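User: I'll paste a sequence; please echo it back and then give the predicted structure.

Assistant: Echoing your sequence first, then the prediction.
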Amino acid sequence: MLLYEIIYAAVLTLWVYFVTFHLTKATYNFFLKHGYVHNVAIYFNRKIIHVLAGGLVAFLVPILFSSFLIPLILGLLFAVLTYLPHRTNKLLYWFQDPSNYYEVNFCIMWALIIAFGWFIFNNPWMAVIPVLFMSIGDAVTGFVRNLIYRKRTKSWIGNLAMGIVSLPIGAIIGLPGIIAALIASFVEHFEFKYVDDNITVPLFSFIIIYAAWAFI
């Protein structure tokens, strides 16, 4: 079993590496050729990474792994890999913004929420739901806003789209997931200097699911 999980981890690592370092470099050039400015192109790419790397892998975690240990290691590994370009001033320009570390926050929260959720709930599906809100639900807000406004901005239209996508994801675990989906879709609209939606969305979702699990 452990050998298989190591193989799964290696394949998923290669997939995430491909999406992050190759696929999105191509999509960055595609967006520029179609009239999008640099800042919009990188945020489109971040949302592509959210879905194809963060979301897809999170969905596969309960299917492929028997514990949270390997996903935790992988998530923190990519947190380091995305942090180092900031420290060395060698940004991966096609998706990194020098003004923030949001993609690093994404990797850290991805790893920690899955690990803590799996440990506390002893149920990997309950653990990955908040991460899916962050990976897929939040990505939808970015796609919608970038297509409509052609710039990075917050709008309730994006949050409505996030809610529509997040509700069926939350429904996987029933009413707690549905409530968490609504709260997450609302919370995503707000952002603070050091606390972005890659922190607030999974954290609030986790708290709601935990409260329902513990007290209802």
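The mean pLDDT is 93. The helical segments are 2-33, 38-64, 69-88, 102-121, 124-149, 156-170, 175-187, 197-215.
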